[in-house]
Amino acid sequence: MTAGPKYEYRWADGVQIKKPIEVSAPKYVEYLMDWIESQLDDESIFPQKLGAPFPPNFKEVVKTIFKRLFRVYAHIYHSHFQKIVSLKEEAHLNTCFKHFILFTCEFCLIDKKELAPLQELIDSIIIPY
């Protein structure tokens, strides 16, 4: 999966696929959604019982989820934005992305270097006061 000519994302989950492999965007998204579902269903990461502690690596897991979700946004904006515009749906995409980025920035969930494929768009969203 790519996000423009300078960014290629390969898939690895560290369990079934240890070495990153080149996959199409639909396959990357399929792997990602399955992986996220397995993370959310894992009670050792996302406890279901009231008062159960979160693991020490909880924020790192969440950061990995958000980093990988960002890659999907980067791909959509670089590869499919014109189609989204032709369908007059860009306001929906932009609103979802804005909420995603504001939440990400509020809780420092994605390293700045990972945001490079959409940095110009992000800069237009996050206006310094």
Describe this structure in words.
The protein has helices at residues 25-41, 58-86, 90-106, 119-125. By secondary structure, it is mainly α. The protein has one domain: Butyryl-CoA Dehydrogenase, subunit A, domain 3 (Up-down Bundle). α1 packs antiparallel against α2 (58-86) and α2 (58-86) packs antiparallel against α3. The longest helix has 29 residues, at 58-86.
Rg for CA atoms: 16 Å
Q: Mind telling me which CATH architecture this is? A: Up-down Bundle
Largest pleated sheet:
none
Contiguous helical run count: 4
Give the percentage of residues in beta strands: under 5%
Instruction: Please give the CATH class.
Output: Mainly Alpha
How many strands in all?
Answer: 0
Amino- and carboxy-terminal Cα gap: 35 Å
Ranges where pLDDT stays below 50 over 5 or more residues in a row are none
Q: Which fold name fills CATH's third level, the topology?
A: Butyryl-CoA Dehydrogenase, subunit A, domain 3
Mean pLDDT: 95
Helicity range: 40-55%
CATH homologous superfamily annotation: MOB kinase activator
Describe the structure in brief:
By secondary structure, the chain is mainly α.
Short descriptors:
129 residues, globular, 4 helices, Butyryl-CoA Dehydrogenase, subunit A, domain 3, mainly alpha, 54% helix
Topology:
Elements: H1 25-41, H2 58-86, H3 90-106, H4 119-125
Helix pairs in contact: 1-2, 2-3
